[in-house]
Amino acid sequence: MGARWAFLSSALSRVAPPLYTIVLARILAPADFGLVAVAMVVVAFAALFQNLGFKQALVQHRDPDPALVAAVFWAGLVLGALWFTIIYLTAPFVAGLYRNPDVVPVLRALGALFLVSPLAAVPEALLLRELDFRRLFAVEVLPALVPGVVAIGFGLAGFGVWALVFGTLAGAVLQTGALWALVGYRPGWPPGRGPWRALLRFGGWVSLEALLGWVVTYVDQAFAGRYLTAAQVGVYRVGFSLALLPATSITQVLARVLFPAFSRVQDDRAQVREGFEKGLRLVALLAVPLGAGIVMFADPVVPLLLGSRWGPTVEVVQLLGVVGVLSALVNVAPPLYRATGRVDIMPKFFMARAACSVPAYWYAAQQGLVALATAHLALTLFFAPLNLGIAARVFGASARSLLGAIGVPALCAGGALAIGPGAGSFMPIAREPLGVVIEMLVFLLAYGGLVRLVSNARYQEFRGVLHGMLRASS
Questions:
Q1: Could you read off the pLDDT of 407-450 as tens digits, one per residue?
Q2: 198 and 66 inside one domain
Q3: Chain center to CA of 31
Q4: Which phi-psi region, left, alpha or beta, contains residue 438 (left: φ > 0; alpha: ψ -120 to 50)?
Q5: Angle between helices 269-306 and 230-243 (to 10 degrees)
Q6: CA dihedral defined by 35, 38, 40, 41, rounded to 10 degrees?
């Protein structure tokens, strides 16, 4: 039941932002998105140290006592206030690096997130520990919708970039308030030394992983903000978000369930291996066709949804579509690493990735928008197979299981692409909106049919999981 509610909650929170981004793209200018993207690079960096991995440690801990819970709360509160102050004071310096003074007020306003978000850490962790995704769903329904509604309202009123800022802040405030009202947590006094030591042992590796993950994830946007115009940064950011839909909409749903669930059975290696293999199969079945569809239909769909001024986004989406698929696949393993206490693996991997990413993105950003997207694709094509190989070795999965998990959906997606757009090419309305919709529907139906034909067992497994999740809404 927990997986079903996690699916509904995460699906809503992942589907809603792209939808209201499409609406906002018609209201706001690319430069508005670029300003927020530049500011969020800094905010995302500070967020790595918001609780030093203590929230994850609270979820993973077998039997946390009240002192440990209190330590997580007070650490987040103090660090949040510290980061708000640092961001506020250093905003002019950051704006100087990006050669854009308009970044200062936007960054300072978004820094207020650190006065709000830390308050939600403990209530959310307590619900995750209990796998109480049903109550989490109740908490997250409105925060998933409110930022878009608020941003669209302010955008229509002519607030420009501030529509995005106000929407982000409104979502954080509402979610924090809802969590406190639902959980009813009341913090105790700061504890002694014991709980801090336990948290630091686990949280230190998690924080290092998050820091290096930030380098891998955001350094391209950091260099984009330095060397590209605000409009180009906006195009890159929106294109990146659309292309990574497989990773953000699928694996984050799965990760949210895997980490707390497998923390309970962390010593059962067979069960963990089975969870990794099944998770990879399910993610591949969804991510591969979604990524293939994004690449194939980006040209007609992106200008249609966002407007003609977002034309350069098409090439970014097409280049990064494969990145979205591979990111979805490799993101299955990290929550299982944390659940089993192997929090050292991803930091070590990210060290190697970051060593290559920083110089590659630095050079590519100076060459332009397309070069930056191409560099991201090349790095992902090189490192993703290594990442999957490490995961297979750690969990004891065979190469055959990995190839089967990815090969079947890749084969079926390739066949569906030949059938879907091929059928649409014979229609006189092929390039019109209705023709594109028909092509997409044919593609999806062809993919489902081919999966059932090639591997009925895989089809039935996916159908059973989907049916179980959808029953939660009834």
A1: 888 898 888 888 766 554 544 444 566 777 778 888 888 888 88
A2: yes
A3: 23
A4: alpha
A5: 130
A6: 180
Q: Report the domain count for the chain.
A: 2
Residues 446 and 301 both lie in one domain: no
Domain assignment of residue 94, given as a range: 2-397
d(CA 7, CA 1): 10
d(CA 406, CA 281): 7
Rounded CA separation 294/63 (Å): 44
**Whole-number Å distance between alpha carbons of 442 and 431:** 15
The number of helices, as runs of H, and strands, as runs of E, in the chain is 21, 0
Instruction: Find tokens 């699928």 and name the residue.
Output: 250
* CA 107 – CA 154 distance, rounded (Å): 18
Those residues of the chain that have pLDDT short of 70 are 1-16, 18, 48-69, 71, 125-144, 184-186, 188-214, 246-268, 420-433, 464-474
Structure tokens at 190: 């700061």
C-alpha 272/C-alpha 284 separation (Å) is 18
Asked if residue 190 lies in contact with residue 71, where contact means CB atoms within 8 angstroms, the answer is: yes
Residue where a domain stops, chosen among 363, 397, 431:
397
387: which 2 tokens?
A: 């990442």
Cα gap 423→67, rounded to integer Å: 64
8 Å CB contact between 329 and 287: yes
- Give CA–CA dist 303/313, Å, rounded: 8
Cβ atoms of 357 and 379 within 8 Å: the answer is yes
Give the integer Cα–Cα distance in Å for 320 and 243.
6
Q: What pTM does this model have?
A: 0.65
pLDDT in tens, 139-194: 666 666 778 889 999 999 999 999 999 998 988 888 888 777 777 666 766 555 55
| Total residues belonging to the chain | 474
Matching residue, tokens 């993703």: 384
